[in-house]
Amino acid sequence: MFLATQMMPQQMMNLFAMHFPLNPQFKIWQIITHMFMHANLMHIAFNMYALWAFGTPLYHIWGDKKFLIFYFASGLGAVLLYTGIQYYTFTQDMHTLMAQGLSKNEILNVLNSGKVYVQFQDMGQIYWSVMLGASGAIYGLLVAFAFYFPNAELMLIFIPYPIKAKYFVPILVLLDLVFGITNVMHTPIAHMAHVGGALVGYILMKMWQKYDQRRWY
């Protein structure tokens, strides 16, 4: 998927990256396929390293079926929260414009035309945005790793000091929540997708813990 994206970036993005549901480029399979799409070498390298580092011990505990269920559930949680917030923001802006006399079709026609107007700027950013990457599923794995190995010491790239997983993971998720709400970093990172993946991972772990379906080593 990564090599194909490098060779045919526009075609692959149009087909397999997650588009906003009201955008004509949206296809139902993008809910899954966006997890296999990455923007550049650094993007896929970080995600695949995390998948190997945190996913390997979980795979050995769960086996293939349970691992895949958890992985894809976390990825779906990421797209659900991220897209849900986008959809809410988009519809609120649409209602504001409709109150000014514009119809829904007129608004969508302007967005589809690609023309840029100040009152449509925020809606346009959502309407034409794409979400891609395995980060949401990876965050679910991070949460599960912290459940099984709470005292494992981890390090952030810019903080070369070991932090136990039971503190490291909540701090990481909290930072994403803050950055997602405030957009203070002004980056294309889908922080709320990370939060969504972590949230579903946490819910699944609590459910499995409750029904004693886990195996501890």
Structural summary, described in words:
The chain is mainly α and 217 residues long. The chain has a single domain, classed as Rhomboid-like (Rhomboid-like fold), CATH 1.20.1540. The chain is 67% helix and 6% strand. It has ten helices and four strands. It has helices spanning 2-7, 9-16, 30-33, 41-62, 64-99, 104-113, 121-127, 135-148, 165-182, 191-210; strands spanning 18-19, 130-131, 153-156, 159-164. The strands form two sheets. The protein has a two-stranded antiparallel sheet. Helix 4 (41-62) runs parallel beside helix 8, helix 5 (64-99) runs antiparallel to helix 7 (121-127) and helix 8 runs antiparallel to helix 9 (165-182). It is elongated and about 60 Å long.
Quick structural summary:
The protein has ten helices and four strands, in the order H-H-E-H-H-H-H-H-E-H-E-E-H-H.
Describe the protein's topology:
Layout: H1 2-7, H2 9-16, E1 18-19, H3 30-33, H4 41-62, H5 64-99, H6 104-113, H7 121-127, E2 130-131, H8 135-148, E3 153-156, E4 159-164, H9 165-182, H10 191-210
Antiparallel strand pairs: 1-2, 3-4
Search tags:
two-stranded antiparallel ribbon, 67% helix, Rhomboid-like fold, 217 residues, mainly alpha
